[in-house]
Specification:
alpha/beta; binds pyridoxal-5'-phosphate
Length: about 375
Amino acid sequence: MKKIKLFDPIIGVDEKRSITKVLESKFWASGSGSGNVFKFEEKFRKYLDANTCVAVNSGTAALNLSLSLIDIKNCEVILPSLSFVSTANAIILNGGKPVFVDVDPRTLNIDPEKIENSISTRTKIILPVHFGGLPCNLEKIQSLSKKYNLKIVEDAAHAAGSHYKNKKIGTHGFAVCFSFHPIKNLAMPTGGLIGINNKKHKKIRRLLTTRRWCGITDRNKTDYNVKEIGNNYYMNEFSAVIGLTQLKELDKRNNIRKKIAKRYFQEIKSEAKMQFDKDCSYHFYWILVKNRNKFRKKISEIGIETGTHYRPIHTFDFYKSKINLKITENIGKSVVTIPCHPNLKENDISKIIKSINSLNYNLV
Ligand SMILES: Cc1ncc(COP(=O)(O)O)c(C=O)c1O
């Protein structure tokens, strides 16, 4: 039996053709980001309508680098615990302290009503995660950012192509971080990107491009200088060229995801499921189940792969704290992510819905 995969990137003819071209060019890497990397940054900047975009080699690198723009040493950053661990690691790596806030059980995004209580004199940033691609309530977050003079850095790893109030996700805060990991809506071998919305974007771009390649600056032919520390975070040419094709197809493929999500929303017989929102990119679709291990085992036997996004970050040994995040902890035990990608056939979607409904004694 062929399993229905949870994630499954589309490989088109164009991707194959462009990869061969890069392979034969022998120009595979460019720390300074010329060639396809620069083209991708420009196309993505136009797509977002951001001031500048800087491509890097992962969503993790995007988070690490974008937080380096704001001095958060001994300062606090507010974020949800229901995310991939990179979101919090980036804060620690930049000398800050993560302050976790509970999620809204209807969206699984950070609960905007609970943020204000966690703001202190040491808070510098609010870092929302658009969970599964569903846009957070940015209006509320923006008003808190104004009131307390905080920067907004968005984790949009799931949200390439999502919208909030008719504008692309990635244009509402100071910085936005995307991941182009192979399972993401825009898939590359590895990749990420920082979008910047700030009038000092030229200076910020210079900082970011220097820091993404080992601090190298003032390049003049083979000569260069190093004035500050940097990392090896640059995007390779294979990723960039695949990204160029994937970007052309992103809206079309996201629309397919939306159609699938609409069917799930209408046909899965449970209240405990992801809502339908035409502005969501549906990186995945989630449901809540009572006996998760049993449920996942049964559905796997039927040939359907599922996931558990995420074990809450504050429950990992490194992050363990006495903080009470009741909703996040309950979600962490009951969430199941189901396939929602454009490679699914109508038969697959029907099978997923039918299987979930037939196991309905386990739905929350
Ligand atoms: C919410 C979130 N943030 C950050 C990342 C990190 O992205 P990458 O795997 O490209 O480093 C991921 C990737 O899984 C993610 O899901």
